[in-house]
Automatic annotation (TrEMBL), chains A, B:
Short name of one Pfam family: Mo-co_dimer
MF terms in GO: heme binding; molybdenum ion binding; molybdopterin cofactor binding; sulfite oxidase activity
Annotated protein name in UniProt: Oxidoreductase molybdopterin-binding domain-containing protein
One example of a Gene Ontology biological process annotation: sulfur compound metabolic process
NCBIfam families to which the protein is assigned, alphabetical: sulfite_DH_soxC (TIGR04555)
Lineage: Bacteria, Pseudomonadati, Pseudomonadota, Alphaproteobacteria, Hyphomicrobiales
Keyword Oxidoreductase: yes
InterPro entries in the record: Ig_E-set, MoCF_OxRdtse_dimer, Mopterin_OxRdtase_euk, OxRdtase_Mopterin-bd_dom, OxRdtase_Mopterin-bd_sf, Sulfite_DH_SoxC, TAT_signal
Residues covered by the Oxidoreductase molybdopterin-binding domain: 115-271
Keyword GTP-binding belongs to the record: no
Organism listed in the record: Ciceribacter selenitireducens ATCC BAA-1503
Domain (Moybdenum cofactor oxidoreductase dimerisation) ranges: 289-408
Keywords, sorted A to Z: Metal-binding, Molybdenum, Oxidoreductase
Cofactor(s) the protein requires to work: Mo-molybdopterin
Length: 423, 423
């Protein structure tokens, strides 16, 4: 973090500059240079004259040392205790839609525990015909499904309620990841136990000290909730809940219980600590709105952004970012170069999956003048991502959670980028 | 490798047993146990009484120690030199469709080189209007696309030409991976250089000592070939060609040039070492068939399999595997429990993408008797995966490459699994 943001000062009210005319749409133009003698290609290089690493150098490989900056990072002034804290995904440096487990957002309430498959148990009890305890091998006998879904912390963008404070989308929108999960539909396990007619809620808790229990309505539990073992093709990592976590597509990340220990079935919500004192929306009148489970439609330009400035000067420039909706599929993403005055439709790249990260691109020809970059996502229900100010009008400034407002990046003439707001 | 397979002895001709009636379709049955007092869940466990790892424990995480067996492995008697060899994906232990870069099949011809973005250059020359040299930053200015594709080595399954030799699908079918790539369509770079009318082939080569050059017809080069920077959301790993590799969907892995250095445009194929003395199909008459680029439709049951035996005894059993086709999408996968006498349709899980790995599942109720498991993939063109013997009738036994024959696993009553062939 830069010094000026460490104390959380705000830069709200940055004025939209009328003269911002930094870029037009590019149609195929590029800067590829006519070939001149370049010894890096015309001369035989050192790496072409010797053997590289053998195939047994790394039975399980890690990123090359040149990418050592692409890692999860925390924010010191947000971290009270590292066992109950957050570590943000470096979305400014990623592309495509999948988030590798190794650099995917972590949040723990009492640290990431080490739990073996041999020691693992899952209990289903409460209002069921037949209380059950499953070993890990029991779970492996049930039919499996695959689903790609984003997980977003309810607090993602939370620091932005008070203004543009954090320099980089890793910190402003990086409490998110997107993985391909394989596991058993929770419905099948609940059917095995037999939910009694009066069972209207489940309460899911983890095996860690915090237990981090959350209530989920039975309709959602029987719909698309998954008891997952695999993420992006391999076992869940320790920090993502090995060996078993709950996947709750479209709903706030805190409900995706890690190291899943118990599913209790009840006639009403438990109203636990994590769903009353936390993860509620403190409104302007001092009352708190509870149970805002669905993560509303949102987007952010990941490059350029404060941690990914423009290094190559003017000319063709790729703008890229992510969009997502807890309500279904992304229908369209618009991008503004002038702080929301004019909008143009971005190109969606790759698949559009329901409740999963969607990648967009816009190719422009940058003339080197300043820009105020914004993106605005629209989902299949027609919902349009709002401005931060529109959210504040309704929700005030007390809130920490559920900020899906439009993000603005001020691109300066030298290519550096700053987190600002337009007024 | 077990001792009995180290020397490459064959077990061709294992007889199909008429009495194999090991399993029927399962309809919802499970073995979930009625809950009995189990101290692992009824007593407070050690991991619930202490803090786990803090969020800054691993800025870039790796698999938990309990999964240390899920790694790439080589086969000693296949490895002449580790810098010119293969390391197989542990597909027996993976699920879903994505292959993590860390355990994805590697094959090098002179080792994995370390090449920085600063040192990287890509030359396009030959029959073009304007020869070009691109830096890495130049490439970042071009419009990007996303595509998920499987890479399969032409030699995948090659040891099976001579019979069932290797114990485990990691070794028989593990020269494969499936990743989500982001990069620039090669077409855009070729258009920038301007291909002359007489330019009918490209020749792609790498920056490593082997250069591993391959010729590709211009039609394919202008179709779906990508100059990729990202795999599964992050930068390519060193062993996968950092910073730039070619992605050639559906075509043999050797053409996916890593550390891409040059694209030459020519009026005919170069007929390089790697496309004449290697990666050709030696036919029964001693002549070699060249340019079998497309990887034909194939499938394999990944679990149970020799490295993934049945540990939990009889009852509900999940059969799972992978299917793929270089010609497009998988349409259907059939599974046989009795060595190809009877077939039943498996369930496709997750997305079916063209030229990408597709996951299938079949849920059965295993009575504990022996099975001869087979899978048979059918692609959207109607092509049906053949038996190994059907391939041998046409192609003989001289060949090493392009074996897409049906794999058989002999499941014994104790749950152990062996690689066999039915006759």
């Amino acid at each position: 973090m830069s010094d000026e943001t460490k104390n959380g000062t705000s830069r709200r009210g940055f004025l939209r500059q009328a003269a911002l005319t930094g870029a037009g749409i590019v149609a195929g133009a590029t800067t590829a240079r006519a070939s001149e003698p370049d010894p890096k290609i015309t001369e035989v290089q050192e790496w072409a004259t010797a053997f590289g690493d053998p195939v047994d150098a790394a039975p399980y490989g890690t990123p090359i040392r040149f990418e050592s900056h692409v890692v999860r990072r925390n924010v010191e002034w947000l971290t009270e205790s590292p066992v109950s804290s957050i570590n943000f995904t470096p979305i400014h440096a990623l592309e495509g839609t999948i988030t590798p487990q190794g650099c995917a957002f972590e949040r723990h309430h009492s640290g990431a525990i080490e739990l073996s498959k041999q020691d693992y148990r899952l209990m289903i009890n409460g209002l069921v015909e037949k209380p059950l305890v499953f070993t890990f091998e029991d779970l492996l006998r049930f039919p499996r499904t695959i689903n790609t879904a984003f997980l977003e912390c309810a607090a993602n963008g939370g620091m932005e309620w008070g203004g543009a404070q954090l320099e980089g989308c890793q910190f402003t929108q990086g409490m998110i990841h997107n993985m391909e999960y394989t596991g058993v539909p929770l419905r099948l396990l609940l059917e095995e136990a037999g939910v009694k007619p009066e069972g209207k809620w489940i309460y899911a808790e983890g095996a860690d000290a915090s237990s981090n229990g959350r209530s989920i309505p039975i309709e959602k539990a029987l719909d698309d909730v998954m008891v997952a073992f695999f993420a992006n093709g391999e076992a869940l990592r320790k920090e993502h809940g090995y060996p078993v976590r709950l996947v709750v597509p479209g709903w706030e990340g805190n409900m995706w219980i890690k190291w899943l220990r118990r599913i209790g079935v009840y006639d009403k919500a438990v109203e636990s600590r994590e769903e009353t004192s936390k993860y509620t929306d403190l409104m302007p009148d001092g009352r708190a709105r509870k149970w805002t489970w669905t993560m509303d439609t949102k987007s952010v330009i990941t490059s350029p952004s404060p941690q990914a400035p423009i290094r190559h000067g003017k000319g063709p420039l790729v703008l890229t970012g992510l969009a997502w909706s807890g309500n279904g599929k992304i229908k369209r993403v618009d991008v503004s170069l002038d702080g929301g005055v004019n909008w143009q439709e971005a190109r969606i790249s790759g698949d559009i999956k329901s409740k999963a990260l969607t990648r967009f691109h816009l190719d422009i020809d940058w003339d080197g003048s300043e820009m105020l970059l914004q993106s605005r996502a629209i989902d299949e229900t027609g919902y349009v991502q709002p401005t931060k100010d529109a959210l504040r009008e309704i929700r005030g400034l007390n809130n920490v959670y559920h900020n899906n407002g439009i993000q603005t990046w001020w691109v300066k003439a030298d290519g550096e980028v700053e987190n600002v707001e337009v007024a």
